[in-house]
Amino acid sequence: MRKRKVTYPPAKTANRPAPASGLPTDPPYVRPTVATIDLTAGKGRAGLTVGGRVRIAGSGLFSGEIAVIEKLVTGVIPAAVVRTEAGKTRQVRTIDLEPVGPTAPPQAAASAEA
Fold this sequence. Notes:
By secondary structure, the protein is mostly beta strands. 7% of the residues lie in helices and 23% in strands.
């Protein structure tokens, strides 16, 4: 009996892009798995206080939602513990928070018009 030919799956490295040629006109190659680091995050954002209303900017969980600051955390990267209008709590870098003006609750606005 003849021995069957063994077939192997293609290597995982088979689909990698070609390495950069190193010419000065070539754009720098950035690996797709590398995380980007915001170097300005260590400065934080000034003007945030406990109880203030903010909008969560950036990307990630609860992005774009309005929240109230419950606690400010100091450290290498300043952060804040916020509670969204939906009642969810999350810790967010202060650089990702945008202060928003206070808005009246719907009940107070309705009674003021009457």
